[in-house]
Structure formats: structure tokens, C-alpha cells
Amino acid sequence: MTTTVTTTSYDPRTGQVLGEARSSTTAEVDQALDLATRCAAAVADASPAERAVWLHTLADHLEEPATAHELIALADRETALGRVRLTAELARAAGQLRFYAKVGDEGSWLGATLDASTAMRPALARVEQPLGPVAVFGASNFPFAFGVLGNDTASAIAAGCPVVAKAHPAHPLLSERLGEVAVAALDAAGAPLGAFSLVAGFDAGTALVVSRHTAAVAFTGSQRGGLALWRLANERDVVIPVFAEMGTVNPVVVTPGGATRMSEVAAGFAASFTMGTGQFCTKPGLLLVPAGSGASAAVRAVLERSARPGWLLTGQMAAEAHDGIARLVRAGGQVVAQVPGPEQGWSAPTTLLEVPAAGLTGGSQLLEECFGPVALVAEYADAAELATVLGALPGALAASVMSCGPDDPDAAAAVRALAPRVGRVAVDDWPTGVAVDWAQQHGGPWPATSAPASTSVGAAALCRFTRPVAYQGVPDHALPPALQADNPWGLTRRVAGVLEVGP
Amino acid sequence: MTTTVTTTSYDPRTGQVLGEARSSTTAEVDQALDLATRCAAAVADASPAERAVWLHTLADHLEEPATAHELIALADRETALGRVRLTAELARAAGQLRFYAKVGDEGSWLGATLDASTAMRPALARVEQPLGPVAVFGASNFPFAFGVLGNDTASAIAAGCPVVAKAHPAHPLLSERLGEVAVAALDAAGAPLGAFSLVAGFDAGTALVVSRHTAAVAFTGSQRGGLALWRLANERDVVIPVFAEMGTVNPVVVTPGGATRMSEVAAGFAASFTMGTGQFCTKPGLLLVPAGSGASAAVRAVLERSARPGWLLTGQMAAEAHDGIARLVRAGGQVVAQVPGPEQGWSAPTTLLEVPAAGLTGGSQLLEECFGPVALVAEYADAAELATVLGALPGALAASVMSCGPDDPDAAAAVRALAPRVGRVAVDDWPTGVAVDWAQQHGGPWPATSAPASTSVGAAALCRFTRPVAYQGVPDHALPPALQADNPWGLTRRVAGVLEVGP
Fold this sequence. Notes:
Number of domains of chain A: 2
Strand order of the largest sheet of chain A: 12-13-14-11-10-15-16
Distance between the termini of chain A: 53 Å
CATH class of the largest domain in chain A: Alpha Beta
Oligomer: homodimer
Number of helices of chain A: 13
Helix content of chain A: 25-40%
Radius of gyration of chain A: 24 Å
Largest interface: A-B, 76 and 77 residues
């Protein structure tokens, strides 16, 4: 293996080098996978309650004041996302770990199902079982909540799978430090050695995906990166699932009624698409407004009044954002507002472009995500043109509808048109926030994710890392605990077709 | 499109031509997909109870005595599976349609989940939604239960998806007739035009998979066929899921205790691997027995006493079974019993081969499925060698353990070793029967299926054809019925994290 020996850490505010993070050697990657494989049975056999203790301990270690202070400072240096946001994000990451612990312990995700014996066969019982070691590729833009200890790692461990996470090159020093915190916390909590490991470097990532020890891959990031891993996994002898959550152009439909409160909509749109310097996978990238509603001017006014320039995470992202703006202009976009980024460091101008609705057709470059503080406005002439545009949109993670209230008849129609194309549709709320809760769906039709039936946030995130097994005529003591007659885990189970809610 | 204008129907008992079934033209395939697309919203919007009526009506039409008589006779002519078996299979197919109707109507598969609003966001609700038109490629070996009106079609319609099924070339006239029955039954039941269509011919199958109208593919058959469709779907601009249930070598472990009742085990094994002339995807293809247990001789004795030669479905399958036996011999198998097939028509000799356990390693040709009445016996020296062999087995649909009763300590160990490698593990029961019930899992790790988290039989079969969507702040009247406040479908739902069992 030819490895880059180190990954350089940079300060996005200046472009200056902060330090070097060592890449894993081949032997280190092998060891991480070997440890994960060896402990997989122990992680799977631990009860959900035991795994919940591990996750709670990890959350507590993250929030230990000195550790949190250090992590937030390090994250801010490497990402320039700001301490306020990063403080909230670390709290969110800890909350997520506790949420997945709770969901794991509640146990419905196990789908325990028992059918009595019949004249034709002995008793049949079915339960979800952990897949084994999961390779996690965290995101650049949420170093805590979607990073090496984010939703993917938390939900994989809750589901009984060891994790080998790859450090993100946009925050290599933070990744390394988070890995140390996790290994120490899990050890303190009594989790088996290997339940979590961190590896670093591009080659380490490739090695994780092709290794016969890896059972699944979770990824958050760009389409280019996600599809590359998906292709690599599909070339294996034993193909494994890749849950790649990728960037999309998330549309917002403003109904004619919604357009009557355009100044409010414009302010919300500007705030949402520039949040985190536009580095949200749920960024509203396209505002569809009724013709003549004055949306462009309204958003421009907000941006010129209140846009607060920020930095982009990497030099490459800054270059790609500039290229993306140029591409949108070539494809027919007209710049209607542009606020320069900070003078120093890595940035792109906050940019609003107006595009013709007729140009929003399948395959148009206008519908390719431009990561950063960049968004489009398009005017639709009437309901028919809106329907045509919505019909041409590729799959997206989220969409919003801005209405004039619950009785807006056009809002219901827009929800109905958007639902088949997205993972989540919001009314009179912006798509940017992704709540971690039972009903969340953070996914969407291809190419929003490589596995549109899955979610990377919310209770169902655990279900990515399991596979059902049916047991036929198996003596009670040889069944997994979830299926044993005395229901030792107190699960809600389906018995003879009827749900029996656990104690 | 260059089409074979017809598919020839043959009598396997003689190899003689029975007739010709017309292949679909390009225009006919387009029309089927167009109808499916146009009616997709209506099929999705129908309540589960309405769709249950459609499926019940289809079951009733299949079982109408004159129709059933005609279908069974036609199936027997094209498949030579015998009227007794086919009569039972038609009843099973009708029962399946009613089972999926019941599961659909019960509604837990919708996963309706409601989270109340919080300070951070409005109410969030999540429900599974039908994907849209599903292309169904039925199996050769179960013309009713896994054919064009089998589990895939029944579960897809129950889940709210229109189906375009492809006629199977091993029973083209039956497929055509079943298609007519289905179209008439669904029309009589009030289902929208296009809820089910049949197309025929190889090119029609390719067209289904590449069509932008197709949302998912379900396939039952060989690895070669399943993987070809999977690759084709992965090359699309918008990749769609392919649920390919493929053939495997299903292992049976006889424990030392189980070997004490070898004559019973041998009789069961012989009956199971020759059932349906070995044309079961759950055929036990490999019997692992303790060294010195005399299994080969015992099975040979049963075969020589009672093997009832039958026919194989197609000339190609017969040729491949002969090739497969030769391949197994070349790979180190020794023929210990061979009973010739019928003199006329398409068949292969019922064949038992003994193979060295040491030869059962990853990639060995001994571990490639040989479809037909062919099975292997391998002796293991001790528990360590058994563990090594089980560790090398590729993913399979099912496995069995033959023990000396519930207290056999080796049985629990074998279950534990087999569970990670199969979709279903049975103790003291043969794998051949696949009960249609809530707890069934008919799938297994790659390459048993292309989607190991899914099942093609049982209640969870519906879940292949849905995708979740979350609704955030959406007014009650604009939500899907499954999520509306007054719960019009009477579903069991998760509300604020707690399951509320429906009325």
C-alpha cells in the first residue's frame, strides 16, 4: 500500500497549516479490522441495555467539560464553523448517542416475531441480527454530529455492530482526538476492545471498503465520494451494502399564498441557505416562486443587509464553489446578488442566481448541487409549469413548502408533488434542521442516497446494520434472547401475527 | 428492439413442442409500463383494505374450479411437476395472496410514526410509501407460488405498487394464462387498469429493468440471471433496487447425536433433496456428517430403494445438471449413488456425491449450486473441522441441523455457527418448505440474495417495495391517511416514541 504518510490540517480562516495527522499503516488498518471482527460476536451478544451503557458513557466523556472545551477549540480551528455552533453541535452529538442508546434498548428495531408451530412445520421465529463490522465515513460539515462519532457510529453500535471509522481529511486532528476519546470511553464502559477504532488516510478508506471483514459501509458527503465507495463495494466478491447519504439540490416551493409574505420567506431562505456558510446537505438550493412575486429582489435585499460571510471547510471546497457558480452562470443562471467572502482564507461569495424555470429539466447542470452559500431562484408561471419543474427534479434529501397557512390549497398539492422526490417535506419550515427523533427520515430517492429505503438519522438508522434470520424448530435455549419464551429483554414482539407490547 | 417473436413451450416429459407464446412488442412493453405509471398514484392511494379486496378477488379467481383445473393441467404439461404437487401449489398461491392482503391491511409495515412538535421544530411524522411500478421476474420451479402471481406480485400489490410481470420461458403458456386471469380478476375487483400487466420475451425483460418508469425489480431464479439484472439496474442513471433471490447450496449439519438416528436422517435428506426433482432453491445440497457415521451408505440405500425419477423443467436445466455433476466430480466429488432419470424427456440422474470436507473451501466449485436432484455428503472429523467448513460456506437461503433432541449441545453450537451465513436455520426439520407467515425470512447473505436485509416470503416481503417519507409541520389534511390525527386506517402507530396498538 502506498500511503500518504500524513494528512495536513489547515485553518480555513487563513489557509495556514495547523499540523499533521498521521495516516494509518496497512498493518494498523488490518489490526482495526481484525479487532472489530474478533469482538463482533461480543458486541452483537451484548444486550441493548449493555450497549446503551457504552453509548451513554461515550456521550458523558464527550461532554466532560475539559474534553468538550478542547474538542470545540480544535474543531473550530480546523473547520472555522465557530464556537457557538460547534458547542451546540457537540451537545447534539452527545444527545444523539443517548437517543440511539434509548432506541436500541427499546428494541422494536429487532422486529422479534414468533409464529407458533403448525401441522406443516415447527415454530418459526425471526429477529434482526447485527451485520458485523461497519466502516463509517463521516462528513466534513458536521465534525461532531455527522463525524466519526456521529449518527452512523452511534446507530451502528446501538445495533450491535463494531465500527471502524475513517478520519475526515477536513478535520484530521479532531478526528484523531475523537477517536481517542471514544476508545477510552468505550473501554471505561466495559465494551470489548475493537468495538470502535479509527483509521486515517485515503488508502485506509479504500482498504476498509474492500476488506472481507467489513459488513457494511456508511458514508456522508458528496455524490462523487459516495458513489465511488458504492462502486467499490459492488465490485467485491461478496457485495456489501453502502449507505451513502449524498448532497442534493433541495427545492423549496413558495405557493401563491406563501408569496404574499415574501419578505418573511426571503429572510428565512437567506438565513437557511447561508447557515454554516451553506455547508448543509439540507441546504435549500432552489426557491421556486410564483412569477412576479419579487422574490429575487427580496432575497437580495436580505443578503445585502445581513449576509455574514464565513469560511468554507477546505481549499478544494472553496475552489469547487467558485467553479460551481461559474457553471451555474454558463448553464443560464443570472447572478442577482453576490456578497464577497472574508478577505483571508477559504471562501466563496454568497451568491443568489435567478434561473429560468424552463431550464430546470432532467440532467441540467442547474440541478447539480453547489456546496456553499449559493442558491437559485426560479419563477414559475402557473401550477402547470410548477408541476413540470417538480416532475423533472432529481431525488433530494428534503424539500419545503412555504404557504399562507394550513388552509392554503396549493400547499397540499405541493406536498403531494414533492413527497415522491424527497426523504422529508416540511411546510412553513426550512429544511436545514435535521431533528434526531423517532420519525426522522434523512435519506431520499437516488441520488440523494445510494439506499433510498434507509435513513441516516432517526430511530430507523439502526435498521441499516442488521439482517433478519428466521429460526425454525430451534429449542428455546438455542434461540437468541430476543426470541426466547420468557422474553428476557422485555421486547415488544409480534406473536402469532399480533403485536404484544413489552413490559 | 429485435425480439424473438415467440417463446416455444415444451413438454419436459417428452421434449416435444406444446405451442408458442407470443413475445411482447416494444409498444406492448411501453404500454404496460405506461399504464403502471399512470395508475401508480391510484394504487398507492387505495387503502390497504381496498387492495386486500383486489388480492382476495384474485385468489378467488385462481381457485374458481374450472380455472384452477385448466391452470393445473396447463402447468403440468409445461412443467411436469405433477398434478398433486401443482394442485397444492395453486392453493398455496391463493393462500399467499390472502396472507399478503391481511398483512397489508394490518398496516404495521407502514411504520407510521408521529413525533410531537418541539421548541426546535413543528411536528414530524414518517410513513412508508409505495415505490411505484415493480418489475417481477418469477421463478421456473414454482409456477404458481413464485411465478407471475407469486409472492413478489402479491406483496408488491399489497404494498401499493403496480406490477409488470415477465412471463417465464419455462412455462410461457401458463404465464400468459395467469396474466389473463389476473387482469380480469383485478378489473372485476375495481383495481385501476395497469395495476397488473404481463409482458413476455427476453427483450421485454431487459426493457423493464432499464425503463425510467420501473421503481424496483423482484427476481427469483439463478445467480446468473439475478446478477445480470442487478448489474443492469446498477448501470441506470437512477439506480433502482433489485431484490434477487438466487440459488444456493443449503447446508445441513448432522450432529454426533443426530448421527445416532442416521436411517431417519438419511430418509429425510433423500426425500428433501429430490423433492420436485431437486428443483427447490432451498434444496439441502450438502449434508455434513460426523466421520464414520455411514451417512453415504444410508442415503444410497434410501435412493436405491425409493428414488422416484422425475423431469427437469427445461432442456437447458437438464444439460446444466449433467454438467454440474461432471463439474462436481472434477472438483473431487465421488459418486456414491446414481439413479437414472426417466427414459424420455428432460432429466438428470438422481446423484449423491461424497466430497472431502477439506475441499469445501472458499471459491471451491463444490460449493456452486447444482440445480436438480443432486446433493453432496461430507464427513467432518471433529467440531474444529466442522467449524472450519461452516466458516468457509458462502451465504445461503437456509440451513438445517439434525440433532438428537432439544438437549443436544452440538445443535445449539451449529445453530450459532450457521445463523450468520443463512436467512433461516431449522433444527430437526428440512429446509425445503418455506412457510408463508409473519416470521418467515426467505433471503440470506450475498449471494443468496442481492439484498440480504430483505425477504421474498413472509410479512416483511412488503417492505421491499416502500421508502419512508417524513412530513414536518404538514397540516393534518395534507398528510397521508396513515399519519392523520384521527387514524382513519386504524393503524398501530408509534406516537412520541411509544407504540399505540390500533383498534
